[in-house]
């Protein structure tokens, strides 16, 4: 898995919709790639903040994950400069 593929799959991953195989590939990539690890960690923090303020079961609204995904893409582009 490369960074592009990671990002493609990442949106499903944070939505909890990845297959086991994809999830393993993502975790493998995070272990190898510092940039994506940073992205992953900051996303987890963002999600935790959202989760902390919501009393409902953790489910990311489509709009939020779309915005998050857009932000991640921008971030990754910046990191790749
Ligand atoms: Zn990467």
Bound molecules: zinc ion
Order of helices and strands: HHHH
Distance between the termini: 20 Å
Q: Report the mean per-residue pLDDT as an integer.
A: 81
Kindly state the percentage of residues in helix.
over 70%
* Beta-strand residue fraction: under 5%
| pLDDT < 50 runs, ≥5 residues | none
Sheet/helix structural class = mainly alpha
Q: Major sheet: size, sense and barrel closure?
A: none
Description of the structure:
The protein is built from four helices and no strands. The longest helix is centred in the middle third of the chain and has 19 residues, at 34-52. It is mainly alpha-helical and 81 residues long. The protein has helices at residues 3-14, 20-32, 34-52, 62-79. The chain has one domain (3-79). Zinc ion binds next to helix 1 and helix 3. The site of zinc ion has 6 residues, from helix 1 and helix 3.
Give a summary of the structure in a few sentences.
With 81 residues, this protein is an all-alpha fold.
Task: Name some characteristics of this structure.
mainly alpha, 0% strand, 77% helix, 81 residues, globular, binds zinc ion, single chain
SSE topology sketch:
Blueprint: H1 3-14, H2 20-32, H3 34-52, H4 62-79
